[in-house]
## 1
Amino acid sequence: MGVHKRNGVVYLDVHKLPERPQSELDRRRCYWGYCFETLATEDPRRGDGEEIHHIDANVEYCAVIKTKLGAHRILMGAEMDCCDSTDDGRRFYVELKTSRELDYHTEERYEREKLLKFWIQSFLAGVPYIVIGFRNDAGQLVRTERLRTKDITHRVKMKGYWQGGVCLAFADEVLCWLYGTVKENEDYLLRFAPPFGRLELLQAQSCPDVITYHLEQLKEL
């Protein structure tokens, strides 16, 4: 992740790492996930048994979110899967996820690891609901589960797996450390260093063009 401080504001930009080579099964699982997203957002008037159309992995919709974490005010972009509405017409975002159907051996790992990822992504972006499609090994949709984002932490806390408050406190500490460490008009790279389990802040040589352009636009206001 790039870290850049300009005019007292810390900009963070995610660096996508090179994707590891995918097996045929990996590619198929990705396709099943896109299929579920398309199925979940298809026209409800589509006939039973009718094929899903227009599966496009390159289409995404992003929202700009203003939120707070501790004393930090955060403005961030977040990809959104879809939205739903209440009976009175109020709209809200919904996150779509897929997972292999659970059994006695996989349920604990699912709640320890996957639900943590699902929760933190949706919580920070203010997404109130997550719909999970469970599939079998043939890629067939077995069932769906609709979770309220705020209920996930209660579910796992009762089992002692993880606590949402601890996760957020750690994120707040990282932001405090970054803000107090990075220098004005300097660029850095923040990375997680396995297997040591620590964060490293390294000096970088450049700032993304999109941030530079944004700063130029601010000067014209």
## 2
Amino acid sequence: MAGLSPQVTNIIIILGMMQVSKRIPFEDPDVLNMVRALYVVSNLLIAGIYIYVQLQINKKKDLTTLKYVEPAPMGSSEEGKLVTTTVHAYDSQQIKNSFRSQLMGVAMMGFMHLYMKYTNPLLIQSIIPFKGALESNLVKIHLFGQPASGDLKRPFKQSAGLMGGLQSGPAQSDKKAVEAAERAGRGGVKDE
């Protein structure tokens, strides 16, 4: 699966796990508790990865200036806003967004499992978020030690998910776009 995109591998995993989950006897309390434990361990591993990445971000404390033009909200007639920040602040914000996303997933799964009594998604949600955490740009840079160039260059390109076509586009960090935004006086407030 090395040549496939993350979205394609996610679909393959989901379809495969749906077939596997049909054969798992969730009515048996022992089996159900093992799947619940797998889900909890998966989320603890993800939290551990994100905490480690946050510690690495704080340890490196890269104060290199990062300028980019944040795209305007979809449907807005405004132009993008210039953002001036540091690599440390950018990475910290990205890891906070990852934590928030993970907590939202846990809350939704808790609602679906505890309130609506769905059990099959526990198995799928034990694998897909963990895979996503390992494929995130910050984990690739700070955990696996890959250089921050190419696809890992900041600001990160947003992954084209199901709603990717509805978004207003990626942040622009090229010199021409940044200079145009500076001349137009859009933003320029330093985020720290």
